[in-house]
Amino acid sequence: MKLVTTLAGIALGFAVTAAQAEIVVGVTISTTGPAASLGIPEKNTIALMPAAIGNEKIRYVVMDDGSDPSMAVKNARKLTAEDKADLIIGSSTVPTSLALIEVAIETRTPMLALAPLAPPAEKRAWVFAPPQTNLLMASAVIEHMAATGIKSMGFIGYNDAFGEGFWREVEPLAQKAGIKVLASERYNRTDTSVTGQVLKLVSANPEAILIVGSGTPAALPQITLMERGYKGRIYQSHGAANRDFLRVGGKNVEGALIPVGPMLVAEQLPDSHPSKKVALDYVKAYESAHGVDSRSTFGGHTWDAGLLFQRAAQDALKKAKPGTPEFRQALRDGLENVKNLAATHGVFSMSAADHTGLDVNSRVMVRVEGGNWKLVK
Length: 377
Known about the structure:
By secondary structure, the chain is of the alpha/beta class. The chain folds into 2 domains: 2-132 and 287-361, Response regulator (Rossmann fold, 3-Layer(aba) Sandwich); 134-260, Response regulator (Rossmann fold, 3-Layer(aba) Sandwich), CATH 3.40.50.2300. It has helices at 2-21, 36-46, 69-81, 94-107, 134-147, 161-176, 195-204, 219-227, 243-249, 276-290, 297-316, 325-336, and strands at 23-29, 52-53, 56-64, 87-90, 111-112, 127-128, 152-158, 180-187, 208-212, 233-236, 257-260, 341-343, 346-348, 364-369, 372-375. A 6-stranded mixed sheet has the order 2-3-1-4-5-6, with helices on both faces. Strands 8-7-9-10 form a 4-stranded parallel sheet, with helices on both faces. Helix 6 links the parallel strand 7 and strand 8 (180-187). The longest helix is centred in the N-terminal third of the chain and has 20 residues, at 2-21.
């Protein structure tokens, strides 16, 4: 009986070891709610990711947070406590991603956000944000305005962390470039009307207006501006760079100027661009599965998060077994030490001070023409 018990214990030990041997990637994204047009291509991209790194299997656990920060936190706690996730990927928006930071810190689990984040230094250690920073994208907009003679602008953005974060970058950049901000308005992701805000913007009569939203809600201010007869130039933030924005906006978003990651116009990039080959490979895989022109900048961010994870995991596996604190620490360290990794939206070189790792080559300007994206050269 003692022998049987001992053998059973050994067998159980082997079973636990085997269960922990796979790498578990916990994903919480917004496949429903206002950010669904971001979360759906992200989910589709996760399905294209490799099932193993070398001989080590990878298990992806994907959950929907409904675009709700509190649900994102609930998902992350389940992923870390019950699924023993070695990595958290998510979420789709700035508010839902910000909500995950405390879970990553408490559980010492590396996190790859799919929205631009810039946490303070004391909260940066476990948080990495592959999407271009607001500063990178805001500077692209202001540089284009200045180069084309714009002297005054208006602003309307989300009344949340994304909108306010972008505004904090835009205002000083505009001032430095000699562009006067004549009006600044806010709206909510779930608003069905922005008529009041648009009337104030039109009344101020700026030469250009910058809209900072994401997905389909980004179209609402531009549609309303067109309906109110605004004749100036309209810029959007990178949050608008998906196909649903074009579908909802229709002819009303024609001519919009948007800073985007290079993947969105991969075929139009010069052959010398370091992201062109990686971006084309991703686009081919994604559109083979989901149809022509189905690509989304948000899917690209997810693919890049996967590339970063795969690079870091190769080194982490040499130091520790998945499912352990040591592996999570090694994975975190590996992410921080990624250098010269060509991805769909740029070339990543991380450091202790920079957990985004991108430079100006990670964005290009496009114009909406004929219901599609046209590279502005």
